[in-house]
Amino acid sequence: MRLKKASEASRALVRPQPNDAKSEILSRIFDEVLDLPAYVSELNGLLSSVPVDLKRVGKIIREHPKLSDHIIHLCKLTMPGFHGQNASLDHGIVFLGTDQMRTLIIACCMVMDIGRCYSSNQLRSFWRHGLLTASLSERIARYIDYPRSEDACRAGLFHDAGALALLRWAAGTPGTGELANEMCGEMIEAERRCFGTDHCFVGSLIGRAWGLPEELVDVLEFHHNPQESRYDRVLVGIVAAADSYCVGRGIRFQLVREQASKSPEDSIHEVFCRWLPGLGNHLARKLIDVLEMTYLQEVNEFESGYGSVSSDVGRQI
Hints:
Elements: H1 6-12, H2 21-34, H3 38-48, H4 54-62, H5 65-78, H6 89-96, H7 98-114, H8 120-143, H9 149-158, H10 161-170, H11 188-195, H12 199-209, H13 214-222, H14 233-248, H15 265-275, H16 280-316
């Protein structure tokens, strides 16, 4: 079942022309993304409506226990207060809000779908990078007094959705195996050389196809080039900085496990000064220290928590 809003994204996508490899790739990716289960489309529509029928939303999610379990697991990982008696689906919907719930549902279903092609350990890499980027994005937002820290968390979690879709297509395409570990959300030049497009553009198509808020689409499209942002350059810069910090610490989305390597602190400092305008050298270095403490406090909790999320994904596909 395709979304009613798909026509908008469809117009943004150039359909295949003879000998046009890029258009063919984008068309196939686009079709696959919109072929997620019908209940995902229904949930997206319900959560986009005003007012939202939360009772119906909860009923649909409960009818799909795999999705319900994923949402509860991820709520526990991303929201410190979501434990004990509060760890229920109803509380998760209230805690997250409609926009964040829409994002989380689409992310979960995309990961469940791509799980047909990759192992649970490989998908674990996606969750680890996304969840830590989300946590650090929220921390940066609070540090610089960005007024919507919850948006920064949501955008950090979903920023590499385009990489998931691109890899979903590449998994069944001969001749792309040697690029598998490069095409994981960081080496966009490798993606462009191979496919004529990159995960940022693919991510923006996904965001528009599912009718996600413009600020989130902005992050999907420009988190590698915040200076080109069209909607909220501060939010894009926050996620870009958090993403760069995680990659610098060796926490990246990768299909082949490699030894983690740290980037020099000076390069991270330069990124922060460039992508968080007005921060200045002194505050940028203080922020790096704050993130280091945050990272050290949370990485072990995330590592232990990922097991339940990633192993469930692997078993349920």
